[in-house]
Design goal:
By secondary structure, the chain is of the alpha+beta class. Helix content is 31%, strand content 23%. It has nine helices and ten strands.
Length: 282
């Protein structure tokens, strides 16, 4: 499969557009477009940017998105999926195309040139075969153990903010962090936004949360509200008026006031277990 950047550049040139013109139509800066086209960005562009490029350059809906989602998938996860595809092909199931390409790839999910083998996974994902393979994988297929945690978005260390996991497939995100001691397959990470959890957590820190661990009084936690908003606070379980269960969301920064929220308004509490922080921060 053609890499994402050259694919965008080829289509832009076919339409006779300059980088300046494409920047003006999409609202994406010219320097960043240049980095995308030349493959000098570490991760694919965000979904909103890819949708603008699809619409402006005449790609079919989700053509760039699906390729980017698979490109973001860690190499060891791709290797597992390639193994499943190979097994399916070896059993004589399916047809030529996705599986034929999978057989030609290496054990780490790359082709002979070391490039990400996205074609087989892309076709399998779009056709629904991939999910079927993952759900019904035979027990004798050796799965690659991975402790890679997706960084799904940012969490507000301040007032609650709207949150989205970008509707990515499981374990697919813009970035990843390795954490050797994480055993929770649902673990995720988020970047801290705001200063209500200083001095322990600063803006830009990456915090890993584990849904599998129970949350106790005083735990620093990712808090999801029933309306979809989220925040990052210490949590305390208390009783309000009439003995109604409430949860006190306590900032670590003394300049912020605590919030007391009825328990039924909170749909998820996920304990913080690790923190990544730049060593040169003041």
């Amino acid at each position: 499969m053609e890499a994402l950047g050259p694919k965008i550049r080829r289509q832009r040139r076919r339409l006779g557009l300059t980088l300046d013109e494409l920047a003006g139509r999409t609202g994406i800066s010219k320097p960043y477009l240049s980095l995308i086209e030349t493959g000098r960005v570490p991760n694919p562009p965000s979904d909103p940017k890819l949708r603008k490029l699809e619409q402006t350059l005449g790609f079919s809906a989700n053509e760039l998105l699906s390729q980017a989602h698979l490109q973001r998938t860690p190499r060891d996860v791709r290797a597992v999926l390639q193994s499943l595809l190979k097994q399916r092909n070896g059993n004589g199931a399916g047809h030529q195309g996705a599986n034929a390409t999978a057989v030609a790839t290496g054990p780490d999910g790359t082709d002979a040139n070391g490039a990400a083998a996205a074609l087989s996974l892309d076709e399998a994902y779009l056709s629904g075969v991939l999910q079927d393979l993952v759900d019904k994988a035979a027990p004798n297929v050796e799965r690659v153990r991975t402790n890679v945690v997706p960084v799904i978005n940012r969490v507000s260390a301040g007032y609650p903010r709207d949150f989205t996991d970008l509707s990515y497939p499981p374990r697919v995100a813009d970035d990843y962090v390795g954490c050797p001691d994480i055993q929770d397959p649902e673990a995720f990470a988020a970047r801290v936004h705001g200063d209500s959890m200083t001095p322990k957590y600063r803006e830009g820190d990456i915090v890993i949360f584990s849904p599998a661990l129970g949350t106790r009084d005083g735990d620093d936690s990712f808090v999801r509200f029933s309306d979809g908003q989220t925040t990052f606070k210490r949590v305390f379980f208390e009783n309000g008026d009439g003995g109604t269960p409430v949860i006190r969301l306590q900032p670590r920064n003394e300049r912020y006031r605590a919030q007391v929220i009825p328990s039924e308004q909170i749909s998820g509490l996920y304990k913080a277990v690790y923190r990544y922080q730049r060593v040169d921060q003041d």
